[in-house]
Amino acid sequence: MITDTEKLILFNQYEILKLLNPDETDFYEQNQKVLEYGSESDIEELSSFLIGTSEEVKKETFDFLQMFRDLEDAYEKFFNSTSEYKYSAKFRGFDGNEEPEYYCYCKHLIIDEDRYSEFKGRELNSHFPVINRYRKMLNCYNITNEKRIGNFYENPMTLKEFEYIIQGESTEEQ
User: How far is CA 75 from CA 41, 89, 129, in A?
Assistant: First the structure.
């Protein structure tokens, strides 16, 4: 819960921001009205962009990015640009509305931290949920990794493994 003193500080911050950014005056005034008249949950929404990232989302995002790094490398090795797998092997980001924690952390890694530079410059908002599909693929990717001697650079992905991961259906046969 935010105190009256904290509300006053925020209100004054918005006053300063209005002077510094006159084009954004309406936005800052709206936020001031929320501070004046809004409910506790309305006020909490003002800082909803400060969501942070859970360790689970962090790990899974790194796993997804590494998987797609390896898949895209393998795709270039096995196929030309007209392959049926072109769409499935390419990292499409995360849905900004349905998967915001993944989307924001992914953007942070690629844009702010300058990691996974091969994905820089891409639209990172898939505009549709992808987590369930990525998780199925990641499960298959992990199964192939467990059977691998060394990593993908020492022992590159085979075409069979690539297709297995893209299909995202783990079976005991693989």
Answer: 47, 7, 23
13-44 confidence digits (pLDDT tens)? 999 999 998 998 998 999 999 999 999 888 88
Which amino acid is residue 136, in one-letter code? K
User: Distance (Å, rounded) from C-alpha 151 to C-alpha 48?
Assistant: 39
What is this structure's pTM? 0.71
Tally the residues of the chain: 174
Instruction: Round to whole Å and give the CA distance between 46 and 41.
Output: 9
3-state helix, strand, coil in the chain (%, to 5): 60, 0, 40
Q: Which two tokens stand for residue 45?
A: 């929404």
Query: Which residue bears the tokens 């790990």?
Result: 59
127 and 99 Cβ atoms separated by less than 8 Å: no
